[in-house]
Amino acid sequence: MRLGGWRYPLQLVDLMAALQESVSKAQASRGEDDGPADVHEMSAGRTAKKKPARKATAKKAARKPRKSA
Length: 69
Known about the structure:
Elements: H1 15-30
């Protein structure tokens, strides 16, 4: 059967299954377990503070072109 000019049969790939398999292999090679991640409560005192935006410096006035003689 020819489909769109292809001579070979098309194979469907489950991308999520391939990703999970890849992640599992990578974790196994690093010696990690497949268990759930640890969740820790964040303390209120360690939140990021926003700094005020800096004002843009004024640009110098452009030099006037010279008059040609």
